[in-house]
């Protein structure tokens, strides 16, 4: 296994961090009886990093996962962050220590199970102090049972993935690993379009003229958006708008904020499929109906639609999609945050936007192979990005004029408008 300094492989940290954030968004869609109860699928990149990163790089990856997960799920300023930080640190450091001490004498499945059980134990301790008190014993058996099942499944999947992963084999220097055949790779390359060429697909001769016009109009909006604002100012505006959505107590006002952020993303020229967005929100609401509570609105046999579950589902759906819209507006490719961790978090969010654009390349039939090829593709794109350096410390692309004062005034107005539904929602309580 490799033990190089993390400074020699920041791209690996950023890519693994981006997949932590991507899996965190998937995990957020799954309804949970307790807010801090998670399946732990976002720990998969941490398990892959056990043989790739040294301790310093591994700690940075933990920081990316905890802070990024808090931003995506809207729990950055809540007690859930404490549960996430404690559980992730206990689980990740346990797995890292066992992997270093026992090398390959203990399987990843065993390491995953032990790390999950210790993590669940630490979270139950926090739940006893902050939430349930003595009654925490009633949730302990199902909580530990779920952790045992999911951690075993994750460990087995991770072992299966690394046995056939070219990306993993290249970064660990392991020889004799089972890799994909050349034929499969060639077929996959034909199916996929490179990241740098994804925007050119709309300009193919076979595309209808309306798509060509739409693409040109969208690119024009992108040019105006990038010319008016610097990436640092956009990031600051996004951080100021996120609490307005997360802490809005009224679900109907959250819907208004979501529509507002959706409108801003469209103005910025960000690509978005309205049908997919609506289906995601409806899907989250439907999943939350499986855990009914509150006043019964409709009942048919064992199936019940309750007001509490329905409003909670809609609120979670619009919050998730609203945060994604804010991230699309606020996070730009040239973003440079201060500090090592800040820089890596910004890079992970930038890669996350690419993963979301390419998620259609992951199919059920070739799930593992498609993920592996996507990671290889992203690694190649990061190498290309390093060959095109930007001016350090600037919030805009090199050669571009400093953003005008009008851009700052527009951002200030947008932040104020984002907080108006919060004020309205707070007054209705």
Strand content: under 5%
Poorly predicted ranges = 175-187, 189-213, 387-399
Main β-sheet: number of strands, strand sense, barrel status? 2 strands, antiparallel
Distance between the termini: 57 Å
Can you walk through the features of this model?
The protein has 429 residues and is mainly alpha-helical. The protein has 16 helices and 2 strands. The chain has helices spanning 10-28, 44-48, 55-73, 80-102, 108-132, 140-163, 166-172, 182-191, 209-228, 231-246, 251-267, 274-288, 307-330, 340-357, 367-386, 405-427, and strands at 296-300, 303-306. The protein has a two-stranded antiparallel ribbon with strand order 1-2. A hairpin with a 2-residue loop joins strand 1 and strand 2. Helix 4 runs antiparallel to helix 5. It is globular, with a radius of gyration of 22 Å. The termini are far apart. The model is unreliable at 175-187, 189-213 and 387-399 (pLDDT under 50).
Task: Please give a handful of descriptors for the protein shown.
429 residues; mainly alpha; two-stranded antiparallel sheet; 16 helices; 2 strands; 2% strand
Write the layout of secondary structure elements.
Layout: H1 10-28, H2 44-48, H3 55-73, H4 80-102, H5 108-132, H6 140-163, H7 166-172, H8 182-191, H9 209-228, H10 231-246, H11 251-267, H12 274-288, E1 296-300, E2 303-306, H13 307-330, H14 340-357, H15 367-386, H16 405-427
Antiparallel strand pairs: 1-2
